[in-house]
Structure formats: structure tokens, C-alpha cells
Amino acid sequence: MSSALRPRPLNVSVDGVTLSGLVAEPDGPSRALVLALHGHGMTARYFAGPADPDLSLPTVAAALGYTVWVPDRLGYGASAGADLASCAMFPQAQFLHRALARFAEDQALGAGCFVLGHSFGLKLALTMAAFPGQVPIVGVDGSGSGLMYTFDPGVTRPESQPGDVNASWGPRHLYPPTTFAEGVLPVAATAPTPEREAAEWPDDLRGFAGRIRVPVRFTFAEHERLWVVSEEHFAALRSLLAECPRLEIDIQRGAGHNISLSRVARAYHLKALAFAEECLLMP
Fold first, then answer.
1. Helical H runs in 21-138?
2. What is the C-alpha end-to-end distance of the chain, expressed in Å?
3. Could you tell me whether strands 113-118 and 33-37 are parallel, antiparallel, or unpaired per DSSP bridges?
4. In the predicted structure, residue 3 carries a pLDDT above the cut 50
5. Distances in Å between the alpha carbon of 207 and those of 203, 212, 216, 241, 263?
6. Domains along the chain?
7. What are phi and psi of 113, to 5 degrees?
8. pLDDT at site 4
9. Average pLDDT of the chain to the nearest whole number
10. Residue 115 in 3-state DSSP?
């Protein structure tokens, strides 16, 4: 395998703030950029196959001709000291647009930017699509977020089931055996966020969903514990995102909330990249 296909460290500085992270590049011209955004309590390594390199999104996507940028979001890695106001969803989405423009000064974007987000990263991806920046977004794909929680954020907690690591992970057997070994988990202290931000998310999404005019694909894990997995939820999303030129909803079998760390991560990443290919072909 070409060394270019393997993710390497990359720092991007904008507005006096440095984002650490990873980048992977194809051997030839870039078809497009995949911007991958991790969730709360994780780092860029979430997408990099820390327990099994064959599951790495950057490696798989670069082999298919994509440039992949996986930043440590604000409040993680090099920007771990970021304050509450910066880490809130709407300011962070606008900051990411500026960081993306800075990234584009030095890196090939091909046909545009496809954003793949997990959990809070998917919320950011949808917010970025609703309020575009300088770099065009051609589509959004993500997992671990939606419209209907299984719990009341700030009041109750999601429930785990027998065999789960906890509610955020789902069943332990869904992950490679070395996932929970010391030093493997891509975890970090959770960045500061406004107290009511999680609870307000459904209303936020209802408020700006009509502004999203790019294709969107949601993936829900079969063993998701934080979000309702039901036809009622899917119908609500379809109604809300009626302005999207294309909306897909998939259930990823054999996965819990952290799909990109699971044994089926490669399958999920390939399906997300297939959706990206189709987004590039849309007029």
C-alpha cells in the first residue's frame, strides 16, 4: 500500500486556533474531499481504525481517490483549551467552514467537500450544510444522531442492555477484541458545551432543516441506544428534510452507536463513500 494512503498528522491554523488531526491523500488526482467529524469525548483517531487499520476511513477513502481530512474538533487535541462559546454548535460550524477554506489553500478538494459526521459531528455536518461557507458541500452522511432521543437529555440517561459496554457503545462483541485495550481507545475529555445544547437539538434541527439543499444520508446502528430506531422517526426526518434533493436512511446491522470503531466499520465506510460517489454525479 502506498504510504500516501495512510493517514498522517496535519495541523491547520485559522483565526489564531490550531486544529490537529489527520489527513490521507490518494496517489492521483483527488475526486473530492471527505471531511470527517468525530463526536463528543473522541478524537480524530475515531475514524482511523485504532483497533484494526483495515477499518480506517482515511485509508479506505484515499484508496478510492478521495482526500480525507479528519480534524480534532474544537476542544480536542491541539485546541483542547477552547472555551465554551467557541465549542457551541453554531459557532463551531462556522469556524469549521473557515478552517475548511484554509485547508483548501494547500490541499486538493476535487469536486467539493463531502461531510461525514458521527454523533455531535453529524449535528455539525447538518448545520454546516444549512449555513454554507466558501467551500461547497456536495453531501452529508453520518451516524449517531437524528431527531428523536431515547432519553431526555439533562434529565434522564440512555439505558444500556445486558452485554453492553454501556449505552454509548452497545454490545462489547461488536468491536474488535483490542478495542478496549490500554492506549487504543481514541477518547479524550469532553469539550465544554452549553448545558441545554443537546436538549435543544431537535428544535434547532426543525428550525434550519428547510435550508439543507444537499443530499443527506442517515445511518442508525442496529444496537443504537441513544436515538430511536423506528419507522416513525424515519418518517419524521423525511418530512423535516423535504427540501433535500435526496434523503436516505439506513440501518447498519451488527453495530452500536460507535459504528466507525466496530467490526462493520469498513462496510459502513464503503456505503458512505458509495453515497458520496452518487452525490458527485448529481446535477
1. 57-63, 84-87, 89-104, 120-130
2. 34
3. parallel
4. no
5. 6, 11, 17, 11, 36
6. 3-281 (3.40.50.1820)
7. -115, 125
8. 52
9. 96
10. strand
CA distances, 270 to each of 134, 184, 210, 245, 276 (Å): 27, 23, 28, 22, 10
Q: What whole-number distance in Å separates Cα of residue 215 and Cα of residue 210?
A: 13
**Whole-number Å distance between alpha carbons of 238 and 279:** 18
Residue 142: name the closest of 19, 21, 34 by CA: 34
Of 245-254, 259-268, 274-283, the poorest mean pLDDT is in 274-283
Contact of 46 with 7, CB cutoff 8 Å:
no
pLDDT at 6: 82
How far is Cα 121 from Cα 149, in angstroms, rounded to an integer? 16
Report the DSSP pairing between strands 21-24 and 67-71: antiparallel
CA distance 159 to 225: 7
Identify the CA nearest to 252 among candidates 238, 232, 266.
Answer: 266
Residue with cell 454509548: 168
pLDDT tens for 259-275 read: 999 999 999 999 999 99
- Separation between Cα atoms, residue 30 and residue 175, nearest integer Å: 31
Kindly tell me the sign of the dihedral angle through the C-alpha atoms of 207, 235, 143, 110: negative
Report the distance separating Cα 96 and Cα 69, nearest Å.
12
Grid cell in block for residue 269: 465506510
Specify whether the CB–CB gap between 168 and 157 falls below 8 A: no
One-letter amino acid for residue 201 of the chain = W
Mind listing the pLDDT tens digit for each residue in 125-137? Answer: 999 999 999 999 9
- The three three-digit cell numbers of residue 92, written as one number: 463551531
CA distance 220 to 211: 23
Question: Tens digit of pLDDT for each residue in 147-160?
Answer: 999 999 999 999 99
Please give the model's pTM, rounded to 2 decimal places. 0.96
- Asked if pLDDT for residue 80 goes beyond 70, the answer is yes
Residues 6 or more apart whose CB falls under 8 angstroms from that of 90 comprise 127, 131
Q: Which residue has the cell 431527531?
A: 147
